[in-house]
Amino acid sequence: MNRATSLRYDNIRTEFGAAIARIASAYEADRSRQQDLQQEIHLAIWRGLPGFREECSLKTWVYRVANNVAATFVAKEMRQRRGQLVSLDDECVIPTHPGHESEVDHKLRVEMLHTFLHTLKLPDRQIALLYLEGHSASDIGEITGLKPAAVAMRIHRLKTVLSKSNTQKGTDHV
After folding, report:
1. Left, alpha or beta for 54 (phi > 0: left; psi -120 to 50: alpha)?
2. Cβ contacts of residue 113 below 8 Å, gap of 6+?
3. Which contacts of 130-135 are long-range, i.e. CB under 8 A and separated by 24 or more positions?
């Protein structure tokens, strides 16, 4: 690698490091495997950087690499758990805290959301994560290769599942 590539990678690490950590935690529940996944994502970015042809924005490319690496990383586990994962088209149950909802703090709600994300099948998990990262349906489509209309439909289903869960619990948390 030349000096320019090293500097570019350092800039990517600085700008997108937190997002890569969030992606890893959304895909992988185990903390040590999250760290392994982060390393795999950074390695893939490092290796792929010389081939980046700027046909899309750097942000889109980084998220595409991160999501593809994460998908591959967890695919083996998902195949083993296939019967336990759900699609947004199925009835989803979002885990709740056993205590009174007003006692649930922000950290616990985030953990519950991650637990919910870990139950989703990979395509739905990717879309949900990217949406939660603030990407538009168009951006998500470019990252995942899906049409923006299909992405928008899955986002709508995700919101419906989350809304239904909140309505059933009589709260507006999650």
Report:
1. left
2. 132, 174
3. 130/63, 130/67, 131/155, 131/158, 132/26, 133/19, 133/22, 133/23, 133/63, 135/63
DSSP 35-48: HHHHHHHHHHHHHH
Q: For residue 169, what are its two tokens?
A: 């619990």
What pLDDT, in 10s, does the model give residues 65-82?
999 999 888 876 666 655
| pLDDT per position as a tens digit, 14-45 | 999 999 999 998 888 889 999 999 999 999 99
Tokens for 77, please give them: 């586990």
pTM: 0.66
Helices (H), the chain: 3-27, 31-48, 58-80, 106-119, 122-132, 137-144, 148-169
Beta carbons within 10 angstroms of residue 96's beta carbon:
18
Please state the separation of Cα 2 from the chain's center in Å: 31
Number of Cβ atoms within 10 Å of the Cβ of 124: 23
Do the beta carbons of residue 124 and residue 88 sit within 8 Å?
yes
